[in-house]
Specification:
The complex is a heterodimer of chains A (about 425) and B (about 130).
Chain A: E1 2-6, E2 24-25, H1 28-34, E3 38-39, E4 54-55, H2 59-64, E5 68-72, E6 75-80, H3 85-94, E7 96-100, E8 105-110, H4 115-119, E9 135-141, E10 147-154, E11 164-169, H5 174-184, E12 189-192, E13 196-202, H6 206-210, H7 216-219, E14 225-230, E15 233-238, E16 247-253, H8 254-265, E17 270-272, H9 275-284, H10 311-316, H11 322-331, E18 335-342, E19 353-355, E20 361-371, E21 376-384, E22 393-398, E23 401-408
Helix pairs in contact in A: 3-9
Chain B: E1 5-6, E2 11-16, E3 19-24, H1 26-32, E4 35-39, E5 46-47, E6 52-58, E7 61-66, E8 71-76, H2 79-82, H3 86-89, E9 98-102, H4 114-124
Antiparallel strand pairs in B: 1-2, 2-3, 3-9, 4-6, 5-8, 6-7, 8-9
Classes of the chains: A alpha+beta (about 425), B alpha+beta (about 130).
């Protein structure tokens, strides 16, 4: 056997005949930092790439749960537990799963009462319209309108915190994002919350489980956040996630996170879930993975994320990259992010070429793999806008042969957020 | 029935009468994780040892599968189309990939036997 590709981390064909370790992984967010791809299978001797990797406060818990650890975005993270990716994925859709997402960056910005107006200068979200405790999905853009990172912005609910916002950014972007925010908003105080971990409890039973620890499920709807106490620790809880299911992201003091994670895992509904299932869950939910479906050469208009910009912002502009975003809004973008459903069962991975009926290239797959809930292959990618309509037949070039596929609307699995 | 033989690339082959059943080893299925798709060769295809004849895809990765011996593909395991997970459940049994009519019945004897394969695996994972 020889390894051809691997998922969720960008990597071209690997030639490897000596050993079957499915574990060469390079991830987009850490690729530049590591500069090389790395073996991830734990039983294989660690390579240099494992040095200089950071560990989250839950690392020992992952090891004790027999996780397979991989380098991801500069961290040693669990890709799966003995349950396996397929069953972990299905468990989250059926019950509840606990994810360690402490590698993501948690940033607090503190300014004056106009903090959200300030933020609008560097991001295209309509932050001024936010209610206390509301969350917005937004981006940092470059001057060309390209996405430097996608992130979540929360307006605190507490009356004495109205001069602050709380931001969660991708692991791979945490240092760069922090530097960009500081340089673009020099009068705003920016703090990286290195003393906090982030865990996500996701799935249709997540609310029931969390209600045993605090009243956040009663108080929060989808995309709302607040402060709650779990086992004596002050936690920032957001009703949001990356699975398409109802669920919560919980910011916990590092010193308390293992105790709280173990308490959640002690509940009968909850299993630990690794990055592998996190990737297939978000792909079925049609959510972008930075470094794959989003990058600096892609604008929010191309990514079909105009909904995240806000009506007033689209008209007024006034954010970094606005000129190009507004131009694309009025004239249309040349390419568009779409869902692609291959016929049959063969998978099409990232970087697969998309061609039209005449074999002419029209785009590329940016995320692709097996969707356990769909029980078949699923892809996301970019195609020329004239081919972006749902139902358009296309072909995917897999191992040199055209594989018939159709453009479909996203998500592949309907979102089941709690909107009250 | 002859004993099961293994390649360094983790295919196995077992001669039964004049037909050799082939698949991937238990070690390989464990390393790959959940297997979600298997692409098999056409029946009648003439193959050479080491030639890529099948593809196995797991939730993580795609890997090529090589012919362990020279010969002709005389059967493929059609059940894998609907239940690729059979490879995870029984890699050495019901999860077989294809059957080869060997060009040379002695060729498989050059491959590793079970004991040698196990020590080969130990060498991979000290």
């Amino acid at each position: 056997m020889r390894k051809l590709w691997l998922i969720f981390f960008r990597l071209p064909v690997l030639i490897w005949r000596r050993i079957v370790c499915f574990g060469r992984i390079s991830c987009p967010n850490s690729e530049s930092a590591l500069g090389i791809t790395t073996l991830f299978w734990r039983t294989i001797p660690m390579t240099d790439a494992f040095t200089d990797l950071r560990r989250t406060p839950l690392y020992d818990l992952h090891v004790s749960l027999q996780a397979r650890i991989v380098p991801f975005a500069g961290y040693e993270m669990p890709v799966q537990y003995p349950t396996g990716i397929l069953k972990e994925h299905l468990h989250v859709r059926a019950s509840a799963g606990l994810f360690d997402v402490s590698h993501m960056g948690q940033i607090v910005l503190e300014g004056g009462p106009d903090i959200r107006a300030q933020l609008e200068k560097i991001m295209p979200g309509d932050f001024q319209e936010m209610e206390p405790g509301a969350i917005r999905y937004s981006f940092l853009l470059n001057e060309q309108g390209g996405v430097i990172d996608d992130l979540m912005v929360t307006r605190p609910a507490a009356p004495d915190e109205q001069n602050m916002v709380f931001i969660v950014v991708n692991a791979g972007g945490r240092d760069e994002d922090f530097a960009i925010i500081k340089s673009r908003l020099p009068n705003v105080k920016a703090m990286m919350l290195n003393d906090r971990s982030l865990i996500a409890l996701q799935g249709p039973q997540a609310a029931k489980v969390l209600a045993r620890f605090c009243d956040a499920p009663d108080k929060l709807k989808f995309m709302q956040a607040g402060k709650f106490t779990i086992s004596g620790s002050l936690c920032f809880i957001s009703r949001s996630g990356y699975t398409g299911e109802d669920g919560f992201e919980i910011s916990v003091p590092n010193a308390a996170v293992e105790k709280i994670a173990r308490a959640f895992l002690g509940e009968p509904e909850v299993l630990p879930i690794g990055l592998g299932a996190r990737d297939s869950l978000r792909l079925e939910a049609g959510l972008c993975l930075y470094g794959h479906d989003l990058e600096t050469a892609i604008t929010p208009v191309e990514a079909n994320l105009v909904w995240a910009i806000g009506k007033r912002r689209r008209q007024e502009g006034g954010f970094t990259g606005a000129a190009i975003v507004q131009k694309q809004l009025s004239e249309g973008a040349k390419r568009k992010r779409v869902g692609i459903k291959p016929e049959g069962r063969a998978l099409a991975r990232e970087h697969t070429e998309i061609v039209d009926n005449n074999g002419v290239p029209i785009g590329t797959v940016t995320s692709g793999g097996f969707g356990p809930s769909v029980d078949g292959p699923v892809c996301m990618g970019y195609v020329e806008t004239s081919f972006a309509k749902a139902g358009t037949p296309v072909s995917l070039i897999v191992r040199g042969k055209p594989l018939p596929a159709k453009i479909v609307s996203l998500p592949f699995v309907p979102h089941r957020y709690f909107r009250g | 029935m002859a004993q099961t033989r293994f390649t360094k690339e983790h295919e196995w082959t077992r001669l039964d009468g004049d037909v050799a059943t082939c698949g991937i080893s238990d070690y390989a299925q464990k390393a790959l994780g959940d297997i979600v798709y298997v692409e098999l060769p056409p029946v009648g295809k003439k193959v050479k040892q080491g030639e890529q004849v099948a593809v196995v895809e797991s939730s993580k990765a795609a890997s090529e599968v090589y012919a362990p011996i020279d010969g002709e593909i005389v059967a493929v395991n059609d059940n894998l189309a609907g239940s690729p997970g059979t490879v995870n459940e029984a890699a050495m049994g019901d999860g077989w990939f294809f059957k080869i009519k060997p060009a040379n019945a002695e060729q498989a004897d050059q491959l590793m036997n079970e004991a040698n394969y196990q020590s080969y695996l130990k060498g991979l994972n000290p």
